[in-house]
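Re-run with default settings, no changes from the original entry. Doing this only to confirm the output is reproducible before filing.
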Amino acid sequence: MPMKVGNESFNNRVGEGIQNTFMRSAVSGAQDRLETNRQLATEELGHWEEWRSLGEEIRQHVLANLDYYLTELSEQVAARGGHVFFATTAEEAQAYIANVAKEKEAKKIVKSKSMVTEEIDLNHYLEEHVGCQVVETDLGEYILQLDNDLPSHIVAPALHRKKEQVRESFQYHHQYEGSERPEELTKHARKMLRDDYLSADIGITGCNFAVAETGSVCIVTNEGNADLSTALPKTQITVMGMERLVPTFEELEVLVNMLTRSAVGQKLPSYVTVLSGPRQDGDVDGPEEFHLVIVDNGRSEILGSEFQAILQCIRCGACANICPVYRHVGGHSYGSIYSGPVGAVLSPLLGGYDDYKELPFASTLCGACTDVCPVKIPLHELLHKHRQTIVEKEGRAPISERFLMSIFGIGSSSSGMYKFGSKVASSVLKPLTKNDQLSKGIGPLKSWTTIREFPVPKKERFRDWFENRQKGDE
């Protein structure tokens, strides 16, 4: 499956994440910094809850009228001389882009950061089926690509890597001889990428938002790499999830403002680039040919379902920046290129429960992700709905859990059985007890007791204590 990260089991991925002390330190430090910046930026803007309500309204309006705005977008792109392709599946998107690359006899492609292209595993497909070189130009993605690694965060893909590791990677691949200072590492990457921009046949970008009214696509970056990827190559391909739309520039202004404040605590990023098809008469730069690939890949099935709200997402990463689970296990533990709370909701919908049924349970349901979401996605409620679907509709709860829950249900439904069970509980659990703590759990309790102790029932129940107390008072 394209969006899948690795083949390890969920428990193994989590175990590796917990043991990775650097990653945990980097993530917790980044979370603290990004959340502090977000709070300052939103407070400075003022009336943040009203902005959130407006953002939610815009996104819900687009989803309710998605067919209309997709039609308008495609017509406007075509009117400006661009080509539009609607890809029902990841495979269709891969094949279309590969055909464009073959027609252009492309030898090199430069590509700016894009989660949807990660979702469809575009890089590997082009390298395997077209034989061209695909170069990631976002600094974080560039670092990961050298070592065939994958992003662990929606906004900061290389969050899990040390600067010393980056230096070693540059040294191994480029014979780099500089220091591990971030400024020097960045300067080296910039130098290496300049030649790639100038020699690339095709530029590929993602799309933060597409403006239906004008047929424009908007790309938000802090490095300017997207500008070079679109201005220099003769052919440009933009790949967008079908829900990433706004009606007009008025709504675009609102959502870009909220995106950058929520993602990294900036009033505005370094670059907000708006592209409107191929180069027109009088333009000094831009591509000669423009393709917009609109990807469905399961999104249509989410529309109209109880999970539709997840399509409101603007990919700011604020939910991951505050999530206590992400803080301890990191992005790769999710087994998907979409990590954090949004990934725990979206990955099972796009990739299925076979691979991602554990993710909805990897949450405390504390609701912090919902509180910070700039477009008011009820993330913790959607996670709870996934749990209900997995257990009640899909019947995917472990056999041991189902057995114990059925026994508990029988016991708790009868007052006589409940009284009997509460009386013998302490004796029955005695073999698993140490110092009045349950330290050797079985079944569903095993995962709990391997990392913490569970208090055992007291020999004297509360009912008995209360009755004895009353008799003593008499």
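Residues 70 and 212 are 7 Å apart (CA to CA). The radius of gyration is 26 Å.
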